[in-house]
């Protein structure tokens, strides 16, 4: 029982200390950008940043394809 408690506490510490989503190694975020979410599709993946941007990358070579700015008016609905 003691070992079980230690394992649970260890998992909680490692999970809660995570600072954002795990990103593919091929991605380099622009300076000053911090990821808050990550999703992927066929041939692309997208990273949502803390400053309300969606960065869409090519899945094969990791090149930034498109940047989408999320406006405040869309957030209030």
How would you describe this protein?
The chain is an alpha+beta fold. It has one domain. The protein has 2 helices and 4 strands; from the N terminus they run H-E-E-E-E-H. The chain has helices at 2-16, 72-75, and strands at residues 35-41, 44-49, 53-58, 64-69. Strands 1-2-3-4 form a 4-stranded antiparallel beta sheet, with no helix packed on it. The longest helix has 15 residues, at 2-16. It is elongated. The chain starts with a helix and ends with a helix. The mean pLDDT is 83.
In short:
This protein is of the alpha+beta class and 77 residues long. Helix content is 25%, strand content 32%.
Our estimate of the beta-strand percent is: 25-35%
Largest sheet: 4 strands, antiparallel
Order of helices and strands: HEEEEH
Please state the average pLDDT score.
Answer: 83
Straight-line N-to-C gap: 49 Å
Structural class: alpha+beta
Count of individual helical segments: 2
By DSSP, the count of extended strands is 4
Rounded to an integer in angstroms, the radius of gyration calculated over CA atoms is 17 Å
Which strands sit side by side, in order, in the main sheet? 1-2-3-4
Instruction: Tally the structural domains.
Output: 1
- Oligomerization status of the protein chains: single chain
Helix content percent band: 10-25%
Net shape: elongated
Low-confidence stretches: none
